[in-house]
Structures are given as C-alpha cells and as structure tokens.
Amino acid sequence: MMKRTLRFAAGMLTSVSLNVIGQEAAAEPDLAQQLANPVASLISVPFQANFDFGIGVNDATRFTLNIQPVIPLSLNEEWNLIVRTIVPVIDAEAPAPGLGDAAGLGDTVQSFFFSPKKPVGGWILAAGPVALWPTATDSQLGGEKWGAGPTVLALKQHGPWTYGMLANHLWSYAGDEARGEVNATFLQPFVSYITATKTTFTLNSESTYDWVGDQWSVPLNFVIAQLFKIGNQPMQAFVGGRYYLEGPNGGPEWGIRFGLVMLFPK
After folding, report:
1. Are the CB atoms for 87 and 105 separated by under 8 Å?
2. pLDDT digits (tens, 9 = 90+) for 180-211
3. Domains defined for the chain, CATH in brackets
4. Rounded to an integer, what distance in angstroms lies between the CA atom of residue 4 and that of residue 141?
5. Could you tell me where the DSSP H helices lie in the chain?
6. Are 220 and 237 in contact (CB under 8 A)?
C-alpha cells in the first residue's frame, strides 16, 4: 500500500480562456523556478490525477487523485518550515477474482522540511520528519499502520535547469497487528528544464523499496507543465506518462497523470 501513498503529480490544460505566461514572464520571472523546487517559499495546492493500468490478473485500473497542499512557514530570518501533505483519493478496480472494487481515501503522508532560506554552496537543502497517517477508509486502500521516519531534499537550480533528489524512509510503529509492517524507502531523483515561455519539462523516478517484501517499484515519469493565469490567479497545468521499469508481480505496467496546481505567491 505504500506505493499508493508516496506519489507525486502532473496536470492538463483546459479549453477555457487562458492567459499563458509568456509576455508576463518578466513580471514573475521566478514562479516557474519556485514550482520546480519542492521546498520553495510558495503556497501551492496541486491536484494530481493518476491512472495506473494492467494491475493483477484482471488487468485492472486504479485512479488516484493526490491532493497535495504545500504550506511554507517562516520560522526566523534564517529558516523556513515547509509542510507538504499528500492525501490520496482512490478508485481501484478489483485486481483479482474474489476481490471487490474499492473507493475512498488512502493513507496520508505528511512531510515537515526545515530549510535554510539561503542556499548552501549553491544547493537548496531541507530535512525533517515524515509521518504516515492511517486515513484509508477501506482496508484495500491503506496499510492500517501509523508510521514515521526522516526525509531529506537536495537540489540545485542553474539557469533553466533544476535537478536534485528527494528521499524519505518510513517505519511503522503502531496499528493493526494483523497487517504487514511498513519499512519502505522512497527515492525521487528529478531533473527539469524551463523554457522562456514558462513551459517545464520534467523527468523523474518515484521509486519505492519495500524492505519487508524485498521488492522495488520503479516508475519513470515524463511530465510537461505550463504556467498560465486566469485573471490574476496564477496556475500550472501538467500532463505526462510513466512506465514501470520494475514492480511487484501483479503491479501496474504503465500509467498517465495530469493535474492542476493553484498558486498563491506572496
């Protein structure tokens, strides 16, 4: 179940009247760069929709909408605290005969990054605790375990490029004793390129290693995102796809993701 709760997102442009940021880029030159930084001092609320296909003997489909608010808090002149929360809403077809479909909330993952306001040697660094909350409304959608562990981030921004790594590890410490223990490492290396028209191309992997089951899940994601405005409200829409380079037997084979990020710059 950890693989369902540790995923990130992308989005899709709609056909409404959009004011794409190109000529206005000079007014907000750093907004796309801030979006490429998971711990930027920028309030954002991403809505990430994911479809995974080819699950189990039923060749089932799973839909996951990750609601991912990012709230930065200024602690003092030198440090920020960035709270990143992932609340998944899931609709999963039965992967095998004898199992039913399931729909509802999944388990919530919440990270607390303490980050220096100034880069260290050109690198943006952050670290802190991460928590797993058993918020799933169906036993098929979560692990029914409480978990915690460390999370770290290191990234560098050079011109139009952003690259780095986000990682965390979760151990379960309480919950239903009949359910399997959680002992999972999440690794997200990423690289993105931002054009002059604020189109962002991102390649990343959201890999999870399950130490209990001795099993990797390695999806490779490619996402295209566009910054735009509706009136005075900046947003970013994105769309992309992924292929699972490795995963457990019966796991998904490929997927698509799309979404929208609401932005609230200071």
Report:
1. yes
2. 999 999 999 999 999 999 999 999 999 999 99
3. 2-261 (2.40.160.40)
4. 8
5. 2-5, 31-35
6. no
| DSSP symbol at 54 | E
User: Reduced to 3 states, what is the DSSP secondary structure of residue 39?
Assistant: coil
By the 8 A CB rule, do 187 and 168 touch?
A: no
The tokens 């991912």 sit on which residue? 68
CA–CA gap between residue 223 and residue 56 (Å, rounded): 26
Confidence class for position 24, pLDDT limits 50, 70, 90: very low
Using the Cα atoms of residue 90, residue 258, residue 245 and residue 210 in order, give the sign of their dihedral. Answer: negative
Cα–Cα distance for residue pair 75/136, rounded to 1 Å: 32
pLDDT in tens, 102-160: 999 999 999 999 999 999 999 999 999 999 999 999 999 999 999 999 999 999 999 99
pTM, full prediction: 0.87
pLDDT in tens, 49-103: 999 999 999 999 999 999 999 999 999 999 999 999 999 999 999 999 888 999 9
CA distance readout (Å), 114 to 71, 109, 118:
12, 17, 12
CA dihedral 55, 96, 91, 172 (to 10 degrees): -80
